[in-house]
Design brief:
With about 725 residues, the protein is of the alpha+beta class. Helix 2 crosses helix 4 (about 55-70). The strands form nine sheets. The chain has a seven-stranded mixed sheet. It has 19 helices and 29 strands.
Length: about 725
């Protein structure tokens, strides 16, 4: 069965005996209860009845989600039943009347009176995430629930965009969409706010910069950190009001000074996306206590690859080197390529202050003029970074290629490596493009004493990478190459030039070997857990939304471009053809960003549905643990599953962690885009009144978006 057919089969529910995703499980389980209304089931009975390959933990998690969403009710320990809407509604009436008599109504209709009636779409309590609209009202997004729950501003109880809340919901008479009210803020997405301090006689207030934060934060004199009236400050809310309309209280954690600087704007972007600007004292103390030298005992327990030719290729301004490549010819005639990754998990231990802080932020954030690192600088730029001419602890994926460039052996190991040279992408590209009659770059290695021809090596690696890339696209991968705007800054941090980052062979060389390592790690875990699943943070990408694809096809047809939507593989080919046409014909450039918007967003999850865009059955993130917490988790799980041992985390908890990492990743992307937009405005404001060529790259009801050709400002 082809991959596209298999995925389509899998997503439709498949036959009994298959391992289903959580959403597929929920659908099958709900159907089971509805076709057996008088029966009660335990997870074990569900597995037997549906002939599932999923384990009890997976089934338990699926039914708990159905229970949370109000679609099943618990009868006794892990025995569930589908709710009887009539019985529950009558009980709700009794509870409402009792609450009214006690003058403590716990359930209100939109009018503020007790609700004696609810439509068949259900009522109850659920937990979800607030998505605020421009009007100030909110929609509560609940995983696995098709309809969002509308909550007007007056019933948000102070909840803000991105907060996790518990709501009471119902469907008003005569309507088919649910409404609700917030009864508890379970978790605040943002606790720190950037704003302006205003001094008062008894206490001061911080007025948040962002318009959606329609409250002031009261600050007592002892908590003002000597802030002066008009200072830009960071305030942490310590006491949220229980009733709407009252202001929260907080303490000022940083006084930034006068307003209007780029530095303050960048810090504001980070704070408003929920990132903290400084590492905690506990995390810094832990990092400072980590020795820079590798002990003899630690070196002895690792596979020693220090004399194997190893090097890095990174941007010219990089400081944290996550990955290195090694290259050597084996005695059996095969070529060994090693992908060596900084062993962050060796230094960041579960439960430590470093681990807790990393698990909260989950990612480094790369703004135009700065990086907010996930780890303290001693680790990110020092102990863990694979700097040249230093011994480092690494976690390696090693591949043996035969004379036809086919991988014949793959293995993983904790290693000790030594980078012989650091290349920038530009330097590596020069070697790849070097002509035959030019003098090659030759170096004598310090440790092995051998001479290496870097020019020949880089050319050979590039050929290997191209073959890996060709196979990937032949299997249905999609070309997501998009323009990434960069800036050249002066000494004061002002933009002098805007340009698009060049994506050359040297960039793709590293990318292809990192993809190979990521895919191989995920495949190893998936194969080991075939009979008994090993919960794992997969990086997945679902197929495009059919409705969005149909709309795109209709729009593209007006430009004379026909898209084939007959199968997932046909869609992938259509995407690639569209990308190629967009580069060749400027008038079609508007189609490329529209096509990307139809795609599902990649995310982290324990439900392995594959990566559609890369055409991989199994994929994860293994290669960037300095800047991604997901990779740290992958390292820990992989290490404990090497050899014959098997190690499993509790799936439901790991899934929650994956959801949090995905959410933080989206916040980081938003911060990076806001940073780019800010610097584009800084740049273009110096050119007001000038004329530029541009192209239309977006259309809305109120007008069009034009991207300027010379500087990529929109």
């Amino acid at each position: 069965m082809s991959r596209s057919k298999k995925n389509r089969h899998k997503r439709s529910g498949g036959k009994h005996g298959e391992k289903l995703t959580t959403k597929q499980l929920q659908k099958q389980i709900l159907h089971l209860f509805r076709t057996n209304p008088e029966r009660r089931f335990t997870p074990k009975q569900i597995i037997q009845h549906l002939q599932l390959k999923n384990n009890k933990d997976a089934v338990r998690y699926a039914i708990e989600q159905l229970h949370t969403n109000g679609k099943l009710k618990s009868v006794s320990a892990f025995k569930l039943d589908e709710p009887s809407r009539k019985g529950d509604r009558n009980q709700r009436k009794r509870d409402d009347k009792k609450a009214v008599k006690s003058n403590k109504p716990d359930y209100k209709s939109p009018s503020g009176k007790t609700n004696d009636s609810a439509a068949d779409t259900g009522e109850g309590e659920i937990v979800g995430v607030v998505d605020l609209s421009r009007s100030g009202s909110g929609y509560i997004v609940v995983d696995g629930r098709e309809q969002d729950v509308f909550v007007p501003q007056r019933r948000l109880s102070g909840a803000m965009n991105g907060d996790t809340v518990r709501i009471r919901f119902w469907t008003p008479r005569g309507r088919n969409k649910p409404e609700g009210e917030v009864v508890e803020v379970v978790n605040r997405k943002v606790e720190h706010f950037l704003g302006t301090y205003r001094h008062g006689k008894k206490y001061g207030v911080v007025i948040p910069d962002r318009i959606e934060y329609n409250f002031d934060v009261a600050v007592m004199p002892d908590d003002a950190d000597e802030a002066k009236d008009g200072d830009k400050v960071v305030v942490k809310v310590t006491d949220w009001p229980e009733r709407a309309g009252r202001n929260p209280r907080g303490i000022i954690t940083q006084v930034l000074g006068a307003t209007g600087s780029t530095d303050i704007e960048m810090k504001g972007i980070l704070i408003n996306q929920g990132f903290e600007l400084k590492h905690s004292e506990a995390a810094l103390e832990e990092s400072e206590a980590i020795p820079e030298e590798i002990s003899p005992q630690e070196a002895h327990r690792r596979l020693d690859l220090r004399e194997v030719l190893t090097f890095t290729i990174d941007p010219y301004d990089a400081k944290d080197f996550d990955d290195a490549i090694s290259y050597r010819q084996l005695e059996n005639g095969r070529l060994e390529i090693g992908v060596h990754i900084a062993d962050v998990s060796h230094y960041v231990r579960p439960g430590s202050a470093l681990d807790k802080e990393s698990a909260k932020s989950t990612t480094s954030v790369y703004l135009v003029d700065r990086v907010l690192p996930m780890l303290p600088e001693k680790l990110s730029n020092g102990v863990c970074s694979l700097r040249p001419n230093e011994d480092k602890c690494t976690f390696s994926a090693i591949f043996e290629f035969d004379d036809r460039d086919i991988i014949r052996r793959t293995y993983f190991a904790k290693t000790l490596t030594h980078s012989d040279r650091r290349f920038t992408y530009e330097q590596a590209q020069e070697l790849i493009e070097q002509s035959e009659d030019s003098k090659p770059l030759v170096q004598k290695l310090d440790l092995s004493g051998e001479e290496v021809d870097w020019t020949a090596l880089m050319k050979h690696l590039n050929q290997l990478a191209q073959k890996l890339r060709t196979r990937r696209f032949r299997n249905g991968a999609i070309d997501f190459d998009s323009e990434e705007v960069r800036f050249r800054l002066d000494e004061q941090g002002n933009p002098l030039e805007a340009y698009v980052k060049a994506r050359q062979d040297s960039n793709m060389l590293i990318e292809d070997f990192m993809l190979l390592a990521n895919r191989s790690v995920a495949t190893f875990i998936a194969n080991k857990g075939k009979k008994n699943e090993i919960p794992f943070p997969y990086r997945v990408h679902d197929e495009p939304d059919p409705e969005k694809m149909a709309n795109l096809a209709t729009f593209a047809a007006k430009f004379g471009v026909e898209l084939n939507l007959s199968s997932p593989s046909a869609i992938a080919k259509s995407y690639n053809r569209l990308q190629k046409l967009s580069r060749e014909r400027p008038e079609l450039a508007v189609l490329s960003p529209l096509a990307i918007r139809t795609m599902a967003k990649a995310e982290y999850t324990t439900d392995n549905i594959g990566h559609y865009g890369l055409a991989f059955e199994n994929y994860t993130h293994f290669t960037s643990p300095i800047r991604r917490y997901a990779d740290v988790l992958v390292h820990r799980i992989l290490e404990k599953n090497l050899g014959r041992s098997e190690y499993r985390l509790e799936k439901a908890h790991l899934e929650e962690t994956c959801n949090h990492i995905s959410e933080r990743e989206r916040a980081a992307v938003k911060a990076e885009r806001e940073s780019t937009s800010y610097f584009q405005v800084l740049y273009i404001k110096e050119h007001i009144g000038e004329e530029f060529d541009g192209k239309v790259n977006g259309v809305i009801d109120r007008g069009i978006f034009v991207q300027l050709s010379d500087n990529y400002c929109e």
